[in-house]
Every structure is written in structure tokens, then in C-alpha cells.
Amino acid sequence: MNPFLISTKCPMLFGCGTSMTVASKIQELGCKKVMIVCDDWLSQQENFKAFMNTFSEVETYVWNHVIPDPTDISVEEGAVIARQENIDGIIGIGGGSSLDSAKAINTLIHSDFPINQYFAELGPDAKVPNPGVPMILIPTTSGTGADCSPSTVITNTRLNNVKNNLFVPTGIPDLAVVDPDWAMTMPPKLTASCGFDVFSHAIETISSSCWNPMSETIALKCIDIVWTYLERAYHNGSDVEAREYMHFASSAVAVAFSDSLINLGHEIAHMIGARYHIPHGDCCAMVTPACLKFLAGKLPVEMGRIAKTLGVDDREDGLGDRLYDAVLAFRKRLGIMSASEHGLDKAEFMSMADDLSSPVFLSYTMTADDYRSILADIISE
Length: 381
Ligand SMILES: [Fe+2]
What we know:
The protein contains 14 helices and eight strands.
């Protein structure tokens, strides 16, 4: 076994209704005036108003200007307000964009602007921010796992409009409050899309070059959960048990991929998302069957474990085709569109093979021809 690091990122409080204790939790962390970071839509909802009513001892400032795929500019605007308001605690609530915005604002609250100087893409030139303030994150969708992952995704508008990552201590909350009540109102399409994001995070944890047995254990359990509960949550949003398990898996697999980092599926999905502006989870769903088929030929032992978890025959002979068929059928049952249903041009789609690089954290080195074989499967579905 190769040496590995298991890093426990933050405590997670899980359960229906737990977010109603956040006001007292942030007070226990010594905060007197907290910024609630969310989007405008959430701030209008009745459950958000009920949540805000739990704050009596702690002063709040609701910054509801989160935008989808937050940019360097948008999070800096939030940080300016946080400083002006003398904020001493942050609560991020919402989907991945809101949680990433909260993390970025925390990164800037005691550190120099711009946010871009802390991007991991700068390598050793990336600056390290000063410590931030106490932070609690509350996911309202079952998908990104941003509450339990150490990365913060921010679009770099000052350079090339590409999504960059912050891997900074200020992106790790003091507490993740994973309350499935918030996920109950996710519409079916969003449920399916976010659920496939969880599924792909779990699969890529298994194919990672930073594999470790604890991450694998969590990831296989999360694959089992998605396989068992995602369709139930998709068909019946009020299915509490299905919502609970999906919400748990979203955060739990983020703990797993914090150490065994995501790789092939997201490498392709991110490029599709950037080029065609298709939601992230749908991109993950688009690429996952073909990636499994490809990886079964390269990492048969690891893909066999996934097959076994799915109840698919895990013998090496024909493994890729069986995984492909099972997961493609799953995606279709969830009503997620294929690349051709999106109307993507085949030649343009295939040209991505020349622009994709081999994922740093994949246990196999990808070539352009490897990518061509995967992209050909995706565009032919
Ligand atoms: Fe993802």
C-alpha cells in the first residue's frame, strides 16, 4: 500500500431540524454579528425566514447576493460588506455556489484582496491567507459536498473566466450542519442532477491515485446509497428516508474525496460545462457511464468493486460493457439528457480530446486517443 493521508476536515452535525440549532452553535463559537451568505431566491423562502427567527442573541446581516458559479468579483463584493459590517462569524447556506462564496468571503475577511492571489492554480506562488472567522456551512442541495470539502471553486474573471480552486484553511468550516429538511423541496430534475454529482464523486474516489481504504469504504457506501435512494428521492421528494440518505451521502463522499481526489469524470465534465453551459451534475451524468466502461479496462479491480456494490457481475470479462449498460439505464430512468439530446455537434464535441489533459489524480495516464474513445461513446448515446 502506498502511504496516504486521512485528514478530518470538520465536524458534521447531521439530521432533520439540526439547522435550527445553528444560532446557538455560532454563538458558542464566540460570534456576535454574523453574515448569512445565500442567494436571493433562498432568502425569500418561508423555511429561510423560520431559520432566521432562531437568531435572537446574535446579530445577523443577510448577504443574499450569491450568483451561480461565483466569481472573484462577486465574492470580493461580499467581503467588502463583511468588513464594513464588522462581521465576526459567517454562515453559508445554500447550494455549492453559496457555500463557496461563504468560504471565499472568509478567506478575504482578514486578508488582502484580490482573491486570485490565493488560487491553488498558482502552485507555489499561491499566497496563504490570514485566519478568518468562525464559519458554519449548511447545504440545501444533495450534491456538491462543498460543506465538507476543503476546496472553494471561484471563476477567475481577471484571467480567463476559468473556474479556479482555493485550498486554504479559511475554506474549512468549524461545523457542517447537514439538515435534510432543506433538501425536501429540491425539484426532481435538480435532485437527479445533484445526485449524479454525488455518484461521480464516489466513483472517482475509487479511481483516484490518492486512494486510501477509508475513502474507499465511504465511497462504496455512498455508491450504494445513490443506487438505492436517488430514484426514490427523484420520484417522491417527500420520501424522508431517501432524502436523508442522499443528503448524508453528498457530504460524506466529500470527506472521502477530500483525500482521494476526483479525477477523470470531472476532468471531462468541467470542460463540457465550461463549453456548453450545462449544469455540473448533468455533465457528470453525461460522462459517467463511458468513463466506467473505459476504466474497467484499465482498473478492473477497482471497477469490479463498484460493480459488486451495484449488484452487477464483477468478473473482468465484459465488465466495462455491463457497468456502462447499468449506469446508462440508471441515468435514463432519472430523465437526464444525453449529449446528443442536448444537440451538441459531434465534431466540435470530439475536438475536446485534444484539449483535455490527463487528470493529476487518476491511477492511469490518459492520452488524446483514450479521450477520443470516451467522447465517442458519450456523443453516440
Ligand atoms: Fe462534482
